[in-house]
Amino acid sequence: MALPAGRVAKWVVLVVWVLIMVAVFPLASKLFDSTNNSLVSYLSRGAESTQVEDLKKQLSTGAGQRVVVVYERAGGIRDDDRAKAKADLDEVVRRYPANAGPASSVTPSGDGNALVFGFTLPAGDPAKEGANTEKAVDETRSLVGQGKDGLSIRVGGPGGVLADQLKSFSGLHTTVLLATIAIVALLLLIIYRSPVLWVVPLISVAFAAQGGQAVASAIAQNTGFTVTSGSAFVLVVLTYGAGTDYALLLIARYREELRRHEDRHDAMKAALRRSGPAIIASAATVGIALLCLLFASMNSNRALGPVGFGGIAFALLAMMTLLPALLVICGRWVMWPAVPRPGGQQPDAKTEHRMWHRIGDAIERRPRKAWIGTLVLLGVLAAGLFTMNLGLKEVDGFTDKPEAVEAQELLLAHYPPGITRPVQVVGRADRLDEVLGVVRDTPGVENAVVVGKNDDIGQITTTLEYAPDTQEETDTLHSLRDRVHQVQGANALVGGHSAILIDVAESNVEDAKIVIPLVLLTILIVLIVLLRAIVAPLVLIATVVISFAAALGLSTVVFQELLGFAGVDSTLPLQTFVFLVALGVDYNIFLMGRAHEEARRIGTTAGMRKALAATGGVITSAGVVLAATFAVLVSLPLVAWVQIGFVVALGVIIDTIVVRTVLVPAITMDLGDRAWWPGSRVEQAVAPRERHDRIGAE
Predict the structure, then answer these.
(1) Do both 340 and 355 map to the same domain?
(2) What is the CA angle 593-598-603, rounded to 5?
(3) Which terminus has fewer CB within 10 Å in the chain: N or C?
(4) In whole angstroms, what is the distance from residue 308 CA to residue 287 CA?
(5) Domain edge (last residue) among 474, 495, 516
(6) Is 39 inside any structural domain?
(7) pLDDT at position 1
(8) Is the domain of 130 the same as that of 186?
(9) Does the keyword Transmembrane belong to this entry (predicted)?
(10) What pLDDT does 576 receive?
(11) Measuring CA to CA, which residue among 633, 511, 495, 646 is closest to residue 570?
């Protein structure tokens, strides 16, 4: 562990890291070009809507994204409008032959104020579907224009939504990276109050981020995992946030050791020995929690596990090797103007940590009232969960209103609601008539027609009576699936864009039921091993769960009541839980590890007071940095990622300021030595007054 602090080894470490960065740069630079934002790719291959998309590729009706073009004139459609729409459709059919699909004619609205036609893009390489769709939609928009002289034209449909999503991400990876770097640099300047020191951890974490992006790029290009643009953004903020946290902890210990050692190499060796285990345990906890996502069924959720793990692994490796080497190479002067030297004026523990000593003293006087009051406060915040609308509509998923959403609004204003998203039913060709009859008899189905057939399979396009993203549409789709599945030997399946969205939402719920208990169990085992106790780990797990509930509850109120979001995205509970629980336990590991160490010498209550004072400043700084980096996600143009960034940032602040500062110390002081049961008992013979004096002396 002390290798990077060696007089020769430090240079070897630096050279190795530079060579690694040169080697991985080409791969890391391709990460955002390798992401896949196609909604159907989020699902597993076994999902029913995914199977429908695969089967549609065998037919000439098209298996790519569906694009819809809508024309509106408030005073009524004119002949020249119809002529333009027909000419536009002819050109689209020419560009995408045999893929115009079921709505290959211009359809007027019943009120005479609108026209619509749709076409399906050719199926191609799934990895390039996003880029191909964006290009096709852009070309279509250039072809049809926006309209003039009172005619409005909008291009939308599922393909238009995907294109607008990709367009909203264009260039954002640079913006997010620069914003994250700027925030980390500013906070390091404030924390260290040094014009030089902040550069060293920032360089180290930048190297770590480059390595993490290379791992993610390799995963996207060489595995079946779906790495989305959102996952790539999370990787950036996670690596910078966690890496900076580890740097803060190591540098804080290094400062202490520089006051004790003449040789900076010896100081760094001691700092690595004393802080290394806690940092490694912290990274291992986060990494293991992320890997639990591998048990999810959604490809996008599963991919986030190894992608995040790669970022955490590189952050740990850089902070335990590159950062120590750079600090030792730079020497003490890098700490200027407050350069720590042995024999110099030693900071008085009471003076240096005055605020944290006062907090510890206040909690010690009434620990039970402190933790009960804190639980009541967190419970009030968590009450917002009862108002959560878990089902954000696709058209409400943007922070602005792109063209595809405007097209959807025009369709809903002038056409039956079901026309906006036809449902696709695929089954065996020899049983297709029977399936068609069942589809037409299903309540909620407006019409159904066979649109394609070969010797093996056939496709039925169905229009429902209900608007997209409504509970009525969901219930009808479930009923339709139940009915066509009962047709013996037909192997009938129900898909289409609405079915894909429903499968995504339901898969996220099912993944949460599997992954959340698994995360809790694995972290509990890690804590039991680290603390050699059962009671304290159970307490820590309970506190981070309560902290998560409070953060999600308060965020729900902010989203739905203050920001006006229509609901909460289905990905939010699972992904924010994994991040918040793992990262929240992180800080508790630092606090409780120190408390356990001190409790063996001076008792549990006094040990917790000293641990709180010793770790309070650095953990709070780390929490602020991590929250600020995740807050960068709020700048993204999709509501789902705005919500994830907000919840994680708020949760980290709650965990840092409330849970780690008050709740955990209060419960531990109230439990006393029982907190470490059934491990070895802490020192019993130290009188309370003697303990207090010993703390002051130290």
Answers:
(1) no
(2) 120
(3) C
(4) 7
(5) 495
(6) no
(7) 63
(8) no
(9) yes
(10) 93
(11) 511
Whether residue 405 is contained in a domain is answered as: no
C-alpha to C-alpha distance for 534 and 529, rounded to whole angstroms: 9
Extract the tokens encoding 670.
Answer: 């109230």
The CATH number for 656's domain is: 1.20.1640.10
Q: Is residue 416 part of a domain?
A: no
Question: What pairing do the DSSP bridges indicate for beta strands 493-495 and 445-453?
Answer: unpaired
Maximum CA extent, the chain: 98
| 36, 81 contact by CB (below 8 A) | no
Mean pLDDT for 26-48 is 86
- Residues 606, 641 within the same domain: yes
User: How far apart are the C-alpha atoms of 588 and 566, rounded to whole Å?
Assistant: 35
Which residue matches tokens 């992180």? 586
Place of tokens 């010993």: 694
Mean pLDDT of all residues in 683-689 = 42
Q: What is the CATH number of the domain that holds 57?
A: 3.30.70
In single-letter form, the type of residue at position 430 comes to D
* Residue 111 backbone dihedrals phi, psi, to 5 degrees: -85, 0
Q: In what order do the strands lie in the sheet with 151-156?
A: 107-108, 114-120, 66-73, 151-156
Could you tell me if 661 and 521 lie in one domain?
yes
Segment holding 449, helix H or strand E = strand 445-453
In a domain, 502, yes or no: no
CATH number, domain at 427? 3.30.70.260
**How far is the C-alpha of 296 from the C-alpha of 305, rounded, in Å?**
9
Indicate the number of domains in the chain: 4
* Pairwise pLDDT comparison (121 vs 667), residue with the higher score: 667
SS3 151: strand
Q: Return the exposure string of 297-309: e unless at least 16 CB atoms fall within 10 Å of the residue's CB, then b.
A: bbbbbbbbbbbbb
Are 643 and 551 in a shared domain?
Answer: yes
Question: For residue 223, what are its two tokens?
Answer: 């595995």
Residues 178 and 160 in one domain: no
Rounded Cα distance, 205 and 559, in Å: 32
Residue 261 is given by DSSP the state: -
What domain range includes position 570?
347-400+508-698
Q: What percent of the chain has pLDDT over 90?
A: 53
Of 345, 364, 389, the residue at which a domain comes to its end is 345
> Do residues 472 and 391 make contact, with C-beta atoms less than 8 angstroms apart?
no
CB 602 within 8 A of CB 695: yes
- Cβ partners under 8 Å of residue 80, min gap 6: none
Cα-Cα end-to-end distance for the chain: 27
Instruction: Give the model's confidence band at 683: pLDDT under 50 very low, under 70 low, under 90 confident, else very high.
Output: very low
Give residue 16's pLDDT band: very low, low, confident or very high (50, 70, 90). Answer: very high
User: Do 85 and 130 belong together in one domain?
Assistant: yes
Shared-domain flag, residues 23 and 58? no
470: phi then psi, degrees, rounded to nearest 5: -105, 160
pLDDT at residue 614, rounded to an integer: 85
Residues 6+ apart with CB under 8 A from 263: none
Q: What is the DSSP letter of 466?
A: S
Q: How far apart are CA 49 and CA 493, in angstroms?
A: 8
Chain segment 108-139, per-residue pLDDT in tens: 999 999 999 988 887 666 667 778 888 999 99
The reported pLDDT for the residue numbered 600 is 84
Alpha-carbon distance of 639 to 679, in angstroms, equals 47
pLDDT (average), residues 599-613: 89
HEC assignment per residue over 474-505: HHHHHHHHHHHHCCCCCCCEEECHHHHHHHHH
